[in-house]
């Protein structure tokens, strides 16, 4: 059996702002030359450094919040409202991947609506867009992204403003997600806990479907026949 790669802690934050047209989020496009997620649209984020751990006094959650705020400032020049930064989930990279991260995903209003500044190196483009428009653009093949990004956006679709997001997400226990990669014919998919094929890795196993399936370059999230013990990642 191949050696399971060690996990590196990472953190990301969905930056949000209220507009007359609805709730908007800042999307960043990574340099297509990068090995990891090259050319894809992401939220600001990156690895948790030792300085973040020290600043958090060894508390992993505190370090993740500090890292998310630091990365947002470094990658786009914006700062999240730390008092209203809500953890949405924690995703762990599948064991088959050569680089593995355990990533805290937060959402927060921006503290101040300053101009976005990107370095043109790691990040090549940015867009403030309504959450619904980002999801629509992904489904049409215009904005490539990874499953955690897409599913996180879907989980925010029901909120009209940042106050609703904070009220709705603060009491929710953030799920810990370990996807399992699989293929079904020509389709690439990732299965989550509650899927009939999750434990044995066989995507064709009859039964419940809790997975994200890629169709023509975009992801579709499925939650069908799953036990209530495993809630949907998209509640609204």
From TrEMBL:
SUPFAM superfamilies: Nudix. Residues 6-151 form the Nudix hydrolase domain. Transmembrane segments: none annotated. This is NUDIX hydrolase. One of its GO terms (molecular function) is hydrolase activity. Keywords: Hydrolase, Magnesium, Manganese, Metal-binding. InterPro entries: NUDIX_hydrolase-like_dom_sf, NUDIX_hydrolase_dom, NUDT19. It comes from Candidatus Paraluminiphilus aquimaris. The keyword Manganese applies. CDD domains: NUDIX_AcylCoAdiphos_Nudt19. Its cofactor is Mn(2+); Mg(2+).
């Amino acid at each position: 059996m191949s050696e399971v790669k060690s996990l590196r802690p990472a953190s990301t934050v969905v930056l949000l702002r209220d507009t007359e047209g609805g709730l908007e989020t800042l999307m960043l496009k990574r340099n297509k030359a990068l090995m990891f997620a090259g050319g894809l649209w992401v939220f600001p984020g990156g690895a948790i450094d030792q300085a973040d751990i020290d600043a958090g006094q060894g508390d992993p959650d505190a370090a993740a919040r500090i890292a998310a705020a630091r990365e947002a400032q470094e990658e786009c020049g914006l700062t999240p409202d730390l008092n209203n930064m809500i953890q949405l989930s924690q995703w762990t990279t599948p064991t088959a991947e050569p680089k593995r991260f355990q990533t805290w995903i937060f959402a927060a209003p921006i503290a101040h609506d300053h101009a976005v500044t990107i370095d043109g190196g790691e990040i090549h483009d940015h867009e403030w867009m309504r959450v619904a428009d980002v999801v629509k653009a992904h489904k049409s093949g215009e904005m490539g992204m990874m499953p955690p990004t897409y599913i996180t956006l879907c989980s925010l679709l029901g909120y009209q403003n940042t106050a609703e997001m904070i009220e709705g997400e603060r009491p929710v226990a953030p799920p810990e997600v370990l996807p399992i990669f699989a293929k079904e014919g020509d389709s690439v998919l990732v299965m989550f806990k509650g899927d009939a094929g999750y434990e044995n890795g066989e995507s064709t196993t009859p039964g419940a479907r809790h997975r994200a399936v890629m169709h023509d370059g975009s992801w579709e999230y499925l939650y069908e026949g799953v036990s209530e013990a495993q809630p949907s990642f998209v509640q609204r």
